Amino acid sequence: MSIVDNYEVDLLSSIYKSIQSKPITIPAHAKLNLCDREKKPHIVDIPMADIPTAEPSTSGSVPSELKFTVKNIKTAQKVDISTQSTSSIKDIKQAVVDAHLADSIDAQRLLLKGKALLNDKLVKDYEGLTSGATLTLMLRAPSAPPTEPASRQASNLPEVSLTSADNDSTRTAADPAIDSQSVKKSDYDKTLTDPAFWKKLSGFLNQEFKNDEYGRRALETFFLSAKTSLSPSEIAFIREQAGFEAMGKQE
Fold this sequence. Notes:
Structural class: alpha+beta
CATH topology of the domain at 65-139: Ubiquitin-like (UB roll)
InterPro entries: Ubiquitin-like_dom, Ubiquitin-like_domsf
Domain Ubiquitin-like: 66-144
Organism: Wallemia mellicola
Pfam families: ubiquitin
Oligomer: single chain
Number of strands: 5
Distance between the termini: 155 Å
Protein name: Ubiquitin-like domain-containing protein
């Protein structure tokens, strides 16, 4: 072997050793080509653990059959009830109805240590509901009776018939007291609507107060109090004939 050949061998050996000392890193997303993949998966021989066996349940806090007492604290009535752990609270309420302690299921409210029991829950869902427990029965007040229909109430009203005022059969004798009051009121209205009355009153007030301004104020006060008994047409007539404004102010 020549010197050149030895040199090439040494060079290749040094390159190989330097490459061999470096670790090979493969990126996480690297994938082999389909042609380079093994046709059969490589199965690692790992011993399997034994299948666990089911152990008997040790809960036993709620027996399959329960016996407890339902007590109404208001009436001091109570009843002993036997039921299964898989029964619902609604079944217990039905047993209370059968024992004549309640009228219906909806009227009941069962309490266990102050906590209300729900109808859809099972007996085994409540840890404190064990054999020998006492349930408190609360009864809701009955609902108010339905009100009488309006049509029936209307039928109880007395019948009212209307007749014409000109019908002789409906006329009655006039009351003398009413007639005298109506006559007096008519005289009062006649005097109140007379423009001459207001002119005399204006002159009287001006003479008594000895001041036209004070007399006008007094006349205005009197006219305002009398306007409640006058119609709009009467007020306009007095204002036109006597020379007063609508609110009693003298022109």
